[in-house]
Write a structure and sequence with these properties.
- It is a single chain.
- By secondary structure, the chain is mainly α.
- It contains 16 helices and no strands.
- Helix 1 runs antiparallel to helix 8, helix 3 packs parallel to helix 5 and helix 9 crosses helix 15.
- The longest helix has 30 residues.
- The chain starts with a helix and ends in an 11-residue tail after the last helix.
């Protein structure tokens, strides 16, 4: 098996697990969890924000650890941490314990991405790196789609679902420990890189897009429950549609190569804004909600693929650190966005909340990537 295929498959599975199960499945099961533990919109937003905050801490640590210890150790740790967090969610007896477990699970996503970028840089030849990176990144969509199917099969059994997710994480930890390169590669430069104009623009765009994305990742289940009266089964179908749409994100590298970062960036930010606005509108229909789920999934994974390429090109000699910067500011935006959306939803209501967050997505498109290598 070629290094591109081996690392691509391993990374796709790890990202599917950490992002699709450990991080975003919380929003899918939130209505059921809310019913059993009595969270409410404001506390739900704080818990979701805590998960994103955990991600921020972990991704910064992951980049440094990857440069020192190599991708194998850090990727294996990501799967183990995901397992621990999801066991905690499955067993949580109270909102406080749940919040702690959600934060631990969120740490896994921050740990997972930098070692995969480093593994690609170490073992995959240059002309295959963009497609391998964006294929790995599209693993999010597979995890989301699978979590939606699990929600359909286990309606009302969110604790059992997270238990099964934890078991899958143990299997991925074993796979990571046996399939990824162990060496850190070339000697790490150490420290934080200089903040160039490209990095500043990347940080602004990712912050705004990250904020906007929490409208559906953290509150999509509650929006369709409020607007359409959907229960766990229908929400599971929506999550599967988001995951199916996200499969298109595997082609983000090809689209960027053909059209450039800026046009692809603006196009999919507009699609994200439209999907958020329509799903949260008072006149949304079931069919429209599912179509918007597909659009949101495609837009989200395409955008994270764009930010991945933007990041590793902006700091081309230290790909794990470049990815850390882009994905960290994206997560900082999500950390801020989740509680703000929860407060807006609890106060002015769903309509004003989705309007504000759709506007955030559009505003990110004003920021341009500029000239980068390999573009």
């Amino acid at each position: 098996m070629s290094p591109a295929l081996r690392i691509g498959a391993m990374g796709f599975g790890l990202i599917a697990l950490c992002y699709g199960f450990a991080r975003f499945a919380f929003g899918l099961f939130l209505p059921e969890i809310d019913r059993d533990l009595g969270l409410g919109p404001s506390l739900s937003g704080v818990i979701s924000g805590g998960a994103f905050a955990g991600y921020c801490i972990a991704i910064a640590a992951s980049a440094a650890l990857t440069e020192r210890a190599g991708p194998r150790m850090v990727a294996t740790a990501a799967a183990i941490v995901a397992a621990l967090g999801m066991v905690g969610i499955a067993l949580a007896p109270s909102p406080t314990i749940l919040a702690m477990a959600v934060i631990v699970a969120g740490l896994s996503t921050g740990l997972a991405s930098p070692p995969m970028a480093a593994a690609v840089a170490i073992a995959v030849r240059n002309d295959r790196q963009d497609i391998t990176n964006t294929t790995i990144n599209a693993g999010t969509s597979a995890g989301v789609a699978l979590s939606g199917l699990v929600a359909l099969a286990m309606s009302g059994q969110w604790r059992l679902a997270f238990g099964l997710f934890a078991f899958a994480a143990v299997l991925l930890a074993i796979a990571a420990a046996t399939s990824l390169p162990s060496a850190a590669g070339r000697k790490a430069a150490g420290g934080f890189p200089a903040i160039t104009g490209s990095l500043r623009r990347l940080m602004g765009a990712t912050f705004l897009a990250g904020m906007a994305s929490t409208a559906l990742w953290s509150f999509g289940g509650q929006l369709v429950s409020q607007r359409l009266g959907w229960g766990p089964s229908e929400t599971g179908i929506l999550w599967s549609c988001i995951g199916v749409g996200g499969v298109l994100g595997a082609w983000s590298g090809s689209l960027v190569s053909r059209f450039g970062l800026d046009p692809v960036h603006r196009t999919f930010l507009a699609l994200m804004a439209a999907s958020i606005l329509l799903i949260g509108s008072s006149w949304v229909t079931p069919a429209l909600a599912l179509i918007c789920g597909v659009l949101f999934g495609a837009a989200y994974v395409m955008l994270t693929g764009v930010y991945l390429l933007w990041s590793v090109r902006a700091v081309s000699d230290r790909p794990a650190v470049g990815l850390m910067i882009g994905f960290l500011t994206f997560a900082v935006g999500q950390t801020a966005g989740a509680p703000i959306f929860g407060l807006l939803m609890a106060g002015p209501g769903a309509g004003p909340a989705v309007l504000c967050f759709a506007a955030l997505a559009v505003s990110a498109g004003i920021i341009r990537a500029g000239k980068l290598c390999r573009e």
